[in-house]
Q: What sequence folds into this?
């Protein structure tokens, strides 16, 4: 089983950060067992990426 994490962050106007997280769990056969993603925004000056989650979804496949 493999766990894959992908995090993307960028700076846009007025110093706000927008991010995207993708979590995949893949079995030994290469099949996706779980897929979850989060879209969030963080106000400038916050040190962590646990800002307000605008959208999230988890799906067991």
A:
């Amino acid at each position: 089983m493999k766990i894959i994490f992908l995090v993307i962050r960028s700076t846009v106007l007025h110093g706000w950060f927008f991010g995207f997280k993708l979590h995949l769990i893949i079995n030994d056969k290469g099949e996706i067992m779980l897929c979850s993603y989060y879209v969030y925004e963080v106000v400038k000056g916050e040190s962590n990426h646990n800002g307000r989650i605008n959208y999230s979804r988890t799906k067991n496949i």
Remarks:
- The radius of gyration is 14 Å.
